[in-house]
Amino acid sequence: MKKLIATLLISVLTLSTASAIAATSTPKPSAKPTVKASTKPEVKETKKPAAKKKKVVKKKKKLPPLQAVTCFGKAWPPSGFTQNGEVFAKIPTAAQLQCESSDNFTPAKVFLRADLRKCDEFACGAVTVASETSCSWWEVTSTFERIDLKSGKVDQTLGTLRTVSQGTKAKAFQSIMLISEIKHKDADGKILNNIKASGIAVSCHHDAIPDLSKRNFFTPN
Q1: Is residue 188 part of a domain?
Q2: Please, what is the Cα angle at 9 between 4 and 12, to 5 degrees?
């Protein structure tokens, strides 16, 4: 950053004085010339004007345009997805959910970020969907079960869930959180890992979009 240095011009005022000498008109022994000493000259210095600081205006850097985040690859048909006609679906990994929720390019990801916070309190499942053609809205049905962690077998079916979500453009990926009403923490606040979502079925709709103010409808057993 270049700084501008102001040059100050200092004006010095010099005062010169002359002694006034008065002599007698006739030389008499008793008359001696008297000399009146002049008063000492007063020298005044001007005060240095304060240097004015020049305001430095910082130019705002233009940020590059936001780019869409790619979390599931660019190839089509997508790898690792199960296909049924035009519809593709898979269970996303935790890393893929984190990647997709960081995508500020797509306004729809606001729903995903809000839903992920709810999953700190309630048992959740997740599914990533995509379609060859655009979908006006998505519907997902699932079943929540309690399992035995040692055997992996189902101990109890806890309820069913119907989830609706906003639509997608053709070949666009969207992760949908399946939020139950089952609290999954013990008395110490530790998350229990014995509840899972199974039997997940997805549908791509092309009709009118339903009310999305509520997107999860849980029916307990």
Answers
A1: yes
A2: 160
